[in-house]
Prior knowledge:
Blueprint: H1 2-14, E1 25-29, E2 50-56, H2 65-70, E3 77-85, E4 89-97, E5 115-121, E6 142-153, H3 162-166, H4 175-188, E7 190-199, E8 206-207, E9 215-222, E10 227-235, E11 247-255, E12 267-268, E13 272-276, H5 283-290, H6 297-306, H7 331-334, H8 337-345, E14 366-369, E15 372-375, H9 385-395
Parallel strand pairs: 1-3, 1-13
Antiparallel strand pairs: 2-3, 2-12, 3-4, 4-10, 5-6, 5-11, 6-7, 7-8, 9-10, 11-12, 11-13, 14-15
The protein binds heme C.
Heme C (HEC) binds near residues 324 and 347.
Amino acid sequence: MKTIATTLLSAVLASGSLWGADAAVTALKVNSDLSTVSYASDLWKKATFSSVLLYPQTTIRMNDKKANAMNAHNKAKKAMVAALYNQENIVFMIRWPDSTVNVQKGMSTTSYADGFAVQFAGNFSDPNALPYIGMGSEGRPVVLHLQKVAKDIYEPNGNGDVAHQVNRNQTDLFGKELAAFDKKVASLGSSDYERSFVSEGFRSMTEIKDGSNHSYARIHYLQNKKSWEGTLSRALKDDYVNLNAGAIPVAFAVWDGEKMGRDGLKHLSAWVSVKLQGMQGGEALIKALDTKLTGDPKAGKAAVAANGCVGCHQIEDSDAPNLMGPSLRNVGGYSTAGYLKESLLKPSAAIVPGYNRNAHSAYPWYTLDKGVRVSTMTDFSWLDEKTQNDIVAYLQTLKAEVE
Ligand code: HEC
């Protein structure tokens, strides 16, 4: 009897939850104050950690040979994510492997820091039309919270001679002037490199400085696990996002300073479904983010070859880089099936902004029609549905292996 019972139980487990797909992450409801929760909080003992895969973002080729060479063979990283929420706030913890500690040094532009970001969709009422994963797209804004690892920055005059500047005894100031100097030094000295942005596509980021959003991020290194642990606490609702819902889409990114990571040179998750425990709704979102189209990747690969996608895209690692369109080498890692299908059928619905249009005028990824962005990608909605689904199934296989 024992064997039968075990077999039955594993059959149920293998088929997943009986009442539909599970969200990737579940945020537990708690009664405690969550406005300033850090990694040190005991609350994390209650939380359930789920794995979230972060893929090297290879959309755009950097104009930096050294960084490109260092990152040519990046693998995916497995992060662990947990979340808690109450009436006012939601807090996330992300833990990810990184064998080296890289701290931003002052204002130096040649020092690269480790860090992480958590991204929220401004609007997710249509789970099949979420913002572009790489910092949103026109008309589909995101809010993102960034925390980098930084040492104290004391730069009253921006010359970089920090030791001299902060040594008040070497100034010839006194009285009110010295007090003003001290005050200025204190205001410029901050060890916390935490920022929040609204963005509708990379290079359109606007820092939120009006105080309308509440957020609190912390980061620390776990020497024994060779991992960073970052936390972000933010308001459930502000002027930019309303996370009061049964399930919400959230994306995570991490930077590795050791490999000169900055801007788009990072590891990125797809939109991940986060269930708010006990809240109604969200099934459609969870289903949309979980869906794997039932296509045949082999047939999809043949269709991609037949339709000349490689004329604009680097598709597999062995293809030459191509500035005509985004590299698709890891697109299966950070995209949902719905997004890939939309890219194929309605290329202009969510546009990847591409290179700086002044510096790379030969490679515009969109044209402007009366101010509206139109993708330079051919529309493939004429393909029969089976071929479309086969292509999406193939695109979903394009991703680095996990380290
Ligand atoms: C004429 C050039 C061109 C051709 C041919 C082309 N694409 Fe594209 N594609 C682009 C450009 C430019 C973008 C970025 C602008 C945008 O978002 O539409 C893009 C974006 C995409 C994206 C979104 C990538 C991301 O990182 O989010 C996918 C997926 C994609 N293309 C797949 C395909 C597939 C599959 C084919 C062949 C069936 C194809 N493309 C053919 C130019 C092209």
